């Protein structure tokens, strides 16, 4: 039995609250159980300098964890003068995941930045960030369409993410911190609404995992992402 009493293929309670940041062109507060992430999309009417003159736009992300998002206070990275390797890796993952479903030439020479700030962490902050960031991005794009900045949406598909792992010898979906910290294998899956794989991250914490275990986790992830995409569709109406 999992610490949360969930079945192996059962997600935590997930919710999306749109429009929570007054000034952002799109925003979403996403909850995966006790993990909470505020995702806010900001539009700039110019691409990054290295992309100017190429006739296409860019979607990127920044990720941060509030000092008391965890059990003990962590220092703000701004106070240390550098961004940690973990933070860089996560925000690059979020950006790659979103760009996989955006028609960048159709966006034009503009940039959309999604800020993902973890208010409370209980495992799965990167997967919650990706899933909520898609809603913030989608609402930003709709904001642009409504103001005739774009003729129509540049988003080609949904994208969502979920964690899986091998815990006490069994594959499990959507790990919370209690499971993640004791998992023999920890993996994250990013997929589109049509089922395409965007990214798979997986590592063994102890003994190597088998191909059969990988396929079990993939099957669980597909079911979880189907659920998340259905919830995204319901949230945007």
From TrEMBL:
The EC number(s) given in the record are 2.7.7.56
Residue ranges annotated as coiled coil are none
Q: Identify the residues that bind phosphate.
A: 86, 124-126
What reaction does this catalyse? tRNA(n+1) + phosphate = tRNA(n) + a ribonucleoside 5'-diphosphate
The top EC class is transferase
The UniProt entry, under InterPro entries, shows: ExoRNase_PH_dom1 (IPR001247), ExoRNase_PH_dom2 (IPR015847), ExoRNase_PH_dom2_sf (IPR036345), PNPase/RNase_PH_dom_sf (IPR027408), Ribosomal_Su5_D2-typ_SF (IPR020568), RNase_PH (IPR050080), RNase_PH_bac-type (IPR002381), RNase_PH_CS (IPR018336)
UniProt xrefs under Pfam families: RNase_PH, RNase_PH_C
Q: Where is the Exoribonuclease phosphorolytic domain?
A: 10-140, 159-222
**Listed GO biological process terms:** rRNA 3'-end processing; rRNA catabolic process; tRNA processing
The GO molecular function terms of this record are: 3'-5'-RNA exonuclease activity; tRNA binding; tRNA nucleotidyltransferase activity
Which keywords does UniProt give here?
Answer: Nucleotidyltransferase, RNA-binding, rRNA processing, Transferase, tRNA processing, tRNA-binding
Assembly, per entry: Homohexameric ring arranged as a trimer of dimers.
**What does it do?**
Phosphorolytic 3'-5' exoribonuclease that plays an important role in tRNA 3'-end maturation. Removes nucleotide residues following the 3'-CCA terminus of tRNAs; can also add nucleotides to the ends of RNA molecules by using nucleoside diphosphates as substrates, but this may not be physiologically important. Probably plays a role in initiation of 16S rRNA degradation (leading to ribosome degradation) during starvation.
Tell me which family the UniProt entry assigns to this protein.
Answer: Belongs to the RNase PH family.
Task: Supply the name of the protein.
Answer: Ribonuclease PH
Please spell out the taxonomic lineage of the organism that makes this protein: Bacteria, Pseudomonadati, Pseudomonadota, Alphaproteobacteria, Hyphomicrobiales
